[in-house]
Amino acid sequence: IYYINFLEMEGRNVLFKVGCEGGTYIRKLCHDIGEVLGCGAHMQELRRTRAGPFVENEGLVTLHDVAYWFDRWRETGDDSILRKFIQPMEKALTLLPKIYVKDSAVDALCHGASLTAPGVASLETDIKAGSIVAVLTLKGEAVALAEAQASTEEILDMAHGVVARVKRVLMPRGTYPKGWKSGEL
User: What residues does each domain of the chain span?
Assistant: First the structure.
């Protein structure tokens, strides 16, 4: 837990804001606070205001809104409203360290091949071996999620060898031309 901020109190109801890591049990936190205070407590309502790079007051909408505007799109064919709140997949990857790959490596990665040193165009400085990284094209398009097999420093020193193993392919095959023959890039 990074912080707990008291916001308001009405009778026995308390509203507070918590900044925490994913996997924190807020219901248990409420119970534990009640135990420490000696008055008991339970959670009445939970509202996420942030999840990763997504923040509630920065254009997020409810599923009800999505369903409503999707129905309007189907009726009218006007996709302009959908474009206002549908965000590119790459936004979900903003908190991950990134490896940018050459165009010639993209299609092989889309087929699940591991990324090897010759396919790397550039990378960020915070990559650690074993961490999950976003693999992107030079245009910033999401290709895959992968597990780094080496740190940034080690990757920069590599002339060949596996840099990252693909865990989840995000880009359809054939989006980029085939630039490989066999084996790994």
Answer: 3-47, 91-169
Rounded to two decimals, the pTM is: 0.71
The number of beta carbons lying within 10 Å of the beta carbon of residue 152 is: 17
Residue 86: which pLDDT band, with cuts at 50, 70 and 90? confident
Coil, strand or helix at 152: helix
Question: Cβ(15)–Cβ(9) under 8 Å?
Answer: yes
Fold type of domain 91-169: 2.30.130
33 SS3 class? helix
> What one-character DSSP code corresponds to residue 29?
H
Cα angle 61-91-26, degrees, rounded to a multiple of 5: 60
Mean pLDDT of 87-99: 91
* DSSP string covering 57-114: TTT---HHHHHHHHHHHHHH---HHHHHHPPPGGGGGTTS-EEEE-HHHHHHHHTTPP
Q: Tell me the residue type at 153.
A: E
CA distance linking residue 162 with residue 145, whole number of Å: 15
